[in-house]
Amino acid sequence: MQLGMIGLGKMGGNMARRLLAGGTRVIGYNQDTTATATLAEEAGLEAADSVADLVRQLDEPRKVWLMLPAGDVTEAVFTDLLALLEPGDLIIDGANSWYKDSIRRAGIAADHGLLFCDAGVSGGIWGLKEGYALMVGGSVTAVERLKPIMRALAPAPDRGWVHCGPAGSGHFVKMINNGI
Question: Is the pLDDT of residue 12 over 90?
């Protein structure tokens, strides 16, 4: 199993650590190269020096998870990926994106032949040790492809993650979670 992870800050970095510890091959990219180098040295992350390099290193069909700030940064990298990925590849937006942006991005991805999931992620600094709660929206096909990753990130393979419904529903549920 392998995953490309873009955004290796506190959440993305610890998610990559958890995946690596569980046997997932993670290729990672972060604008701050120090974070990428640290994860490569400490945890065995395979470093990429750009988004394009990350895509080149992944086997097809590719899975690329974005753990970036919601808004312009996520939108820019999403747009970059549209030109780099091949039909059948999967983009996962793990930011706290607005659910209507996720619905829109899913439509754009589909127009390019790509799969899209929006994944609300909760777990903070405890996620590395305890596992993450994952609220995922997307088609059944996309979520099926993502299941091994969700099982590895969650507290246990059979709990801590849920397919909430179509694209946008994962970020909608995360928005409610944040409000509570």
Answer: yes
